[in-house]
Design brief:
mainly alpha; 12 helices
Length: 270
């Protein structure tokens, strides 16, 4: 939402938004890390591959939203994230139970129903860029599932994007334009929504399977919609209620289905 607001109002260009977003994320996380109790020298510090996925996601996401509206971009992004994570899970040997497949379908149908009024025919370039962003985010998420030190890993992932950020800045600086409002939105997107938000996401991933992580992310548009109800006095519509029920019901089915089959397997062994 912050990205679409900044670019839709043309308060900043896509490259500058990405540069400020990643730099502010790195600075905020390093500041938090400096005051944290995580001083373990042997602790993991992210990875270059995760940092590359983070950079690809951020760049592709920003440039995609130049030509996509919010609903269309969200549909392409979350669809490609889900498909990427579920396919990689299947390739790695994990198999989805029937209840998980049903939950995935119900949740995704509810998500499509929620964003459908805002969906328009996307531009080819915007479509491809948002698919790339979704694939990169899916892979970044999977790389964070085994993180024992989410704050440190996320901070160093952001830090490692700086060489790529500098290259992007050099390439695009001649076309840069920005305003105070655009810079503020980019800082909020990077320091708060991305830096702190991604740390919390890495923490949450420790207790989720790949499929659960993929499906849970579909709750984001519903949460954003209810945020509009609470903070912007938007109306609670039948569409919002039904779609949110489908999304949350589908997520619940995936989570409970996985728990049931894991418990049954353990009981069978004992």
């Amino acid at each position: 939402m912050l990205c679409r607001l900044a670019l839709g109002e043309e308060t900043i260009d896509a490259a500058s938004f990405t540069v400020i977003r990643l730099l502010s994320g790195a600075l905020v996380l390093l500041a938090i890390l400096a005051f944290s109790n995580d001083k373990e020298a042997s602790a993991s510090r992210g990875s270059w591959s995760a940092s590359l996925m983070l950079f690809v996601y951020a760049v592709a996401f920003s440039f995609a939203y130049i030509s996509l509206d919010t609903g269309t971009g969200a549909l392409i992004l979350f669809g490609s994230v889900q498909i990427t994570m579920i396919l990689l899970s299947l390739v790695s040997g994990n198999r989805l139970h029937l209840s998980e497949w049903v939950g995935v379908i119900i949740a995704f149908t509810g998500f499509v129903y929620l964003v459908l009024p805002e969906v328009t025919s996307p531009s080819v370039m915007g479509f491809l860029l948002m698919i790339a962003a979704g694939i990169a985010w899916g892979m970044y998420t999977l790389k964070g599932r085994g993180s024992a030190h989410p704050l440190k890993d996320t901070a160093y992932n952001f830090l490692r994007t700086i060489p790529l950020v500098i290259i992007l800045l050099v390439i695009t600086i001649q076309d840069a334009h920005y305003s105070a409002a655009g810079v503020l939105l980019a800082v909020l997107s990077g320091g708060i929504a991305s830096g702190i938000g991604y740390t919390i996401w890495y923490i949450a991933l420790g207790g989720l399977s790949t499929t659960q992580a993929a499906v849970v992310q579909l709750s984001v548009p519903a949460i954003a919609a209810f945020g509009g109800v609470l903070f912007v006095s938007e109306a609670i519509t039948a569409r919002l209620t039904l779609s949110a029920s489908m999304i949350l019901g589908g997520i619940l089915l995936v989570v409970l289905g996985r728990f049931y089959f894991v418990q049954r397997k353990l009981n069978t062994k004992t």
